């Protein structure tokens, strides 16, 4: 029975027992930049930004994932950017993952023509929590040959630890080029999360949260004055599993106040992710849909995922010719 229970928990937290130790994620990962890399804190065209994102994963299943995130960032005049993000993922089977982090990025390392090349470094620190609600578990003890399934019957499982909250920290670095005269502007970032490898966040309190290593990058290509194409990639490695994503998105400036966004990413052995959105004045809206092509998608129909994000950017009147690096995102 214990083996059955552990298998149940692994399915509630991911696609396999190994992936139960992998962080939740968004397909629109650049909406939540400091989760990806704390050095991305403040990488937007403005002075203050607040973003919200919602993800419904495998919503057709009774115990699908529901993930929410809220992010706030501010750019200061001291080349120091600050941010705060809150994150929660839950399932109908009684599993909840939560975290909250403060992040800081320093952008004062500059070189090249007119200091257009920048190396940003960032750190983040906060709390991470996981909780289990045994009342929502389903086990073999609740099944009988005579009566079938009885959800009111005891599960037969007693947890010594139903949840934990631990300190967590991460760090990262980012290179980018702000030279607007160039045809192409590359960027590259690396980060390491869960540097403390906190203990006690799983059923077995001796287990540690494995570090998550991230490499991401791309190049913004100015095809014309109104059209920008950005090929990009993302690589995540955590514990014994990894995630690889490649793709591209396009931005078309329809007017001085409106930009249209669209593109597609591909997450290897998992899903194709088309997305679309627009940037109107200070508001940005993005939607994406994961078309699942994994083993689960071939076994169970309609296990796709949907995301929607909304951001608001506050901008003061900028000086003529002032440059910025805007995080490539929806």
TrEMBL record:
Tell me the keywords, alphabetical order. Signal
Q: Which InterPro entries match?
A: PorP/SprF_Bacteroidetes (IPR019861)
- Please list which residues make up the signal peptide: 1-20
Does this entry carry the keyword Signal?
yes
Q: In which domain of life is the source organism classified?
A: Bacteria
Q: Short name of one Pfam family for this protein?
A: PorP_SprF
Name this protein carries in UniProt? Type IX secretion system membrane protein PorP/SprF
Can you name the source organism?
Flaviaesturariibacter flavus
What is the organism lineage in this UniProt record?
Answer: Bacteria, Pseudomonadati, Bacteroidota, Chitinophagia, Chitinophagales
